Fold this sequence. Notes:
The complex is a heterodimer of chains A (264) and B (327). Chain A is of the alpha/beta class. Chain A contains 10 helices and 10 strands.
Amino acid sequence: MGQTETTNKNDILMDIVNVTLRFGGVKALSDVSFNIQRGEIRAIIGPNGAGKSSMLNVINGFYTPQEGEIWFEGKLRPRLKPHQIAYQRIARTFQNIALFEGMTVLDNMMTGRMIYMKSGLLSQLAWWGKAEREETENRLIVEKIIDFLEIPAIRKTPVGMLPYGLQKRVELGRALAAEPMLLLLDEPMAGMNNEEKEDMCRFILDVNEELGTTIALIEHDMGVVMDLADRVVVIDHGEKIADGQPDEVRNDQNVIDAYLGVSH
Amino acid sequence: MQTLLFALEVSLNGFMTGILYALVALGFVLIFKASGVFNYAQGVMVLFAALTLVGLQQGIVPFQHLINNLLGTSIHGFGWNMPTFLALLLTLLTMLLLAWLVEKLILKHLVNQNPVILFMATIGLAYFLEGFGDLMWGADLKKLDIGIPMGISDTVEQTTYDWFGYGFFIDRLDITASIVAALLVIGLTIFSQFSKTGRALRAVADDHQAALSVGISLRRIWVIVWSIAGLVALIAGIFWGSKSGVQFSLSLVALKALPVLMLGGLTSIPGAIVGGLLIGVGEKLFDFMVGPMIGGATENWFAYVVALVFLLFRPQGLFGEKIIERV
């Protein structure tokens, strides 16, 4: 996706500027700035409770920061409701899987296409014209993603019955169904065994390389982060303490103190 | 043999009553699933819908007592009857407007509050709506007749007499109600399974955050859900109202829906239907078989006792989601 032909400034998909987020008296994020470039995999890491998930929630609009700006595609983003941000093609997964458990894999992924479906209520009631056409068109795209994620066999299975690793994959699929400009992954490998982790890593890389999707992810597994990410931002106690290539970050004394040195 | 056939007839009548219980319970379940709100006002919505329908149809001037008191006039009606179809349509629009207002004036401001607070708000809504309905259309008992066939069905009586030598007394109104209720449930099921909005409804019922993240507006879904609950209330109101007249006691139907919900589970649409039918048939059969031994009038409490027993042994109801406690 045109990573090379544009100037440096246009390479920035999202620019987060001096974001401060408070819950009452508690500062979850203070004065955090970093950017996400088009086409990269950007990791956000930090110890437990550092504010990583808060950051993701700010990006996708669940939280509104008290201070700071978010620039998306070169424009200052106004204050939007979470469901409106989905229409800007920012999709996400959750730390604790948030699938629609009663629905099948296919239906779950179809909800990811919600932002592209514009038929009115009456058209849907009559199941006629626009509504029907829309279902078919969007279904085709979803089927492609199902093939891409290698899960055609379970497309009609209710997601509640799937093992954990597959549920995570379906959740990734639902986010991909939105054909996102920016894909947010909140601990995509949490709770997985090694085999599942390898699969997930492969899919994340494939999404990034084959589909050209920009990804911002939170991850605990440092090995994984170093392998996957193009650039890493480190947050501790709500403040940014390092930002750069994985190798630079790994050797940063602040990071070692805050995270690697002290942690498990 | 005679007793068995009689019991069967009683069950059938109970079945028909049960369908109406199920309809009211369905309204509860729809709203509870989508928004986690236990809508205490569902029963009053049934009353309000029926009142509005009668009022419009009979050409009653809204707020006539208020107008007469304030202006010293003595108007009572427009002096014409509105065509039934038009009255139905306007009542439906009123229920849609009500849904919209509920979202705008109540739900919107109470998002993320404790469920008890939302529950209290619906109690407030129930009393407001009850008073408002009375003020608007008057508190007297009204007869509702929108042309649904009523009275004992001769065909059923004759056929069953030919078959069993015993004629069943089945009200034609009950038969119509069953058919309409069945169509409504089938329609709702198809809508929720196969349309975009239906999918969004199910998504919201499962997970609010995930629904937001794929671009579903919770508030829009709430308006839709309350509208559907309004439609269900209207249909229940039409049949209960036709059966027993439109008056305050209509809203008490909702109290019968509570044991139905305990039985079927608060979150299950099939549960509401099966629960309604079980309570309907159960209370009639119990009254028929056990009632005479203990002095009758068991219909008043039977449903609640069943609900109590269920709470002891299966608190999530027949079809409800299993309650898993994290320790």
